[in-house]
Amino acid sequence: MRARVVYESMFGNTATIAEAIAQGLGIHATVEVVDVTTAAQLPEPTVDLLVVGGPTHAFGLSRPRTRRDAATRTSAPVAVETGIREWLESALPVPEGARAAAFGTKAAHPRRLPGSAARGIGRRLRGLGYQLIGEPTDFLVDAMTGPLTAGELDRARRWGEQLAHIELERDASHICRRRE
């Protein structure tokens, strides 16, 4: 199985989660981890599973304005013009049966703030024709710039493993049906 994890990250938290998901997937798959700016330069992915994630900004996917604001809060370089939103808007429709998963990061808050980049990514992936495996999943950070909430890295690795198992089970059942 081949998988590509595409992420957008301003403060490094989403990138760290993407790497942890890739570690979990990597137990059963060959995994490529690519930031969204690089992904925009690559051809459409020819993988068994595409995993896409980004940070939650203003209750949803980032926009150039929210990325510019994020850039003022870090000394790290931030790609302002291209985010997951723009990358997905420029994507071509996918072949029938293409599979994907969506994740996001968002600030932990006692009142569980609404909004989720993961849900927005999931909707956009379905709109392109991807079949989502699992529910869009959010991973929590303690504040806007991080750090990740305790336990989230392990949870991301386990989620990656679960995605790999779902894909392996699908492949096994597909092979069995062809033999019948």
Mind explaining what this structure looks like?
- The chain has 180 residues and is an alpha/beta fold.
- Helix content is 39%, strand content 19%.
- The protein has 6 helices and 6 strands.
- The protein has helices at residues 13-25, 36-39, 64-71, 84-89, 117-128, 152-179; strands at residues 2-7, 30-35, 49-55, 99-107, 131-132, 137-141.
Class per helix and strand makeup: alpha/beta
Number of strands: 6
**Count of helical stretches:** 6
Integer average pLDDT? 90
* Computed CA radius of gyration, to the nearest angstrom: 16 Å
Chain-wise SSE layout:
Elements: E1 2-7, H1 13-25, E2 30-35, H2 36-39, E3 49-55, H3 64-71, H4 84-89, E4 99-107, H5 117-128, E5 131-132, E6 137-141, H6 152-179
Parallel strand pairs: 1-2, 1-3, 3-4, 4-5, 4-6
Helix pairs in contact: 1-6
Kindly summarize this structure in a few lines.
The protein is an alpha/beta fold and 180 residues long. The protein has helices at 13-25, 36-39, 64-71, 84-89, 117-128, 152-179, and strands spanning 2-7, 30-35, 49-55, 99-107, 131-132, 137-141.
Can you tag this structure with a few keywords?
alpha/beta; 6-stranded parallel beta sheet; single chain
